[in-house]
Amino acid sequence: DFVKQILSAPIVPISEPRVDINSPSNAAAEQLLKARILAELDSVDGQIMLKLTLPEEDGFYTELVEHPKVLRVVALSGGYSRDEANRRRALNPGVIASFSRAFTEGLSAQQSDEEYTKMIDASIQSIFDASNTAQRLIRKNIGLTERFCGRITNECQATCGDEFTARQDRA
Known about the structure:
Elements: H1 2-7, E1 14-15, H2 26-41, E2 48-53, H3 62-65, E3 70-76, H4 82-90, E4 95-98, H5 100-104, H6 113-160, H7 162-170
Parallel strand pairs: 1-2, 2-3, 3-4
Helix pairs in contact: 4-6, 6-7
């Protein structure tokens, strides 16, 4: 209901439902949450942003990322360490990072300016790398699929000849 109120103004609402990463049934909770979000999206006028905890299942939010009423899916580090948040983020293409806790991990008021700057730079780089890893994996998997399918096509063509070509043309 709040999302619908915000949509009536010229701003984009950000909905931030959370699943506790320490819950023994967080995968089931993620399933329920995603189903409810998808059901509610049909009644939304305009686009929204979703800020969600990184899921247990790789690529779990793809349906939300691709939904026309979702402007962005933003990942919360949700209490995961930076390394774990980055690992999970890299396995969820299209999801962007909002890692407040993971971003500040390792920072201390006792650090020198140089140490602090070095830690911030490393944090930014690791989150950036995790974001780019997902894109590289997608490109790599697409390339592997194309090469695999091409090899199978060539093998079928060599074995079946014109019959395979005729079946391919009808498909």
